[in-house]
Amino acid sequence: MNLRPWLRPGIGVKRWALVAFIGLVALALAGALLLRQFYRDAQVEGPLQAILYVLTLQFLPYGLRGAILAVAGIGLFVVGSVRLIRALTDPFRTGGGQPFVEVIYQKRFLARGPRIVAIGGGTGLSILLRGLKEHTSNLTAVVTMADDGGSSGKLREVLGIPPVGDIRNCIAALADAEPLMTQLLQYRFPDAEPGTDAAPAAAHPEPERLGGHAVGNLLIAAMTAIEQGDFEEGVRTINRVLAVRGQVIPVSPKPLTLHARLEDGSEVVGQARITRTGGISRVWISPDDVQAGDDAIRAIAEADAIVIGPGSLYTSIVPALLLPEVQRAIAASAVPCIYVANVATQQAETTGMDLGAHVEALAAHVPPELVDVVLANNNFGAREPGDWHAEPVRLTWPPATAPAPRLVLDDLVDPANAHHHDPARLAGAIVRIVEREAGSRRRSSAARSA
């Protein structure tokens, strides 16, 4: 057991250890004074005098007596402290072997971090959260509810609940027990092999029922059922049960349907179809009267910074911003709003779009003054994956919108994959912007809501 980690700045132990030490010193001095007074006033003689003579080391020089007692005191203090800490912390050691002092330091340090709200969905949002959780535990992921493909789409159709896939991805990203928790939540039950007759379907229906579903999706669906169909409460409970850093909340308690109008005038319905469609002109959601969740609006109002993206532009980012309450909450906030542009285009959905086109598309769906800062990547030397079907987002500026947000360039890309952000680099860039913008905003909230 090493005492040094317990004395690091931020752990919150040194001041109370000092108070306890001063108390022990005061008790020792009081005992010494009482013993000295008793020895003088009582005129002790005989065997008792000999015993006190030995106990107080009077047969040694005065300076040596003090040195011996000091060494003995330090030794007893260190041994006692180590044993006490071990007795208190051993029952709480994490399963991964992480020292309990590291857990305490992490919790206390991260609890003082900025309150950041990240809005979006898909892989991009989970990458952002994975990086930001190393800087603050005051994180809120506000997740879009328009997904209708894969396991989420099946559960949405069968159970009538909002899509859970992006919720699952964000919870996995914020879990303390990565990568084990990620492996658990992302595990998908295998599909039943067609044509196999090893067992009757009636006797073993699980593959047909669970095939393709992720464990995390089923957990969220089950918790929603336990909470009497209250999806928001089900997600709140999952956040508590899995003890994630921060919280993940849906932008709306109801599922959304995404619609897109293409440049040729035709329309496409459904997030899964739109993400495979190019030439998108505009998107919108239904039903028209859907309300944003109270948790989402409260988180935006209490944030120190608002981050939009990264993620699929039309199918992950814009749908969450189309709710009028979300737009009003961002407009009323006096903290910086940062749009994180993708590092690469997305096949079909944003093929050929440069940075200016991304910002213009966003401004076409929400008031352009909502965004204060655009954060974009300026490193184009990352490795391109073998199945590369995209291109880096070219840096063209300013966009054809007024007023144009402030542009911040940084090295944000994953060196091993030019299609994704690097979590640590992206989080570091955002934290630097938040610290630089603290206490000020390019546009006042009054001007933004005018």
- Largest sheet features: 7 strands, parallel
The low-pLDDT segments are: 197-208, 442-450
The DSSP helix count reads: 18
Number of strands: 12
Radius of gyration: 30 Å
CATH domain fold name of the largest domain? Rossmann fold
- What is the CATH domain class of the largest domain? Alpha Beta
Shape verdict: elongated
Keywords:
450 residues, alpha/beta, three-stranded antiparallel sheet, 12 strands
Structure description:
Helices cover 45% and strands 12% of the residues. The protein is an alpha/beta fold and 450 residues long. It folds into 2 domains: 4-96, no CATH class; 108-192 and 201-449, Rossmann fold (3-Layer(aba) Sandwich), CATH 3.40.50. A 7-stranded parallel beta sheet has the order 3-2-1-7-8-9-10, with helices on both faces. Strand 1, helix 5 and strand 2 (139-143) form a beta-alpha-beta unit. The protein is elongated, with a radius of gyration of 30 Å.
Summarize the structure.
The protein has 450 residues and is an alpha/beta fold. It has 18 helices and 12 strands.
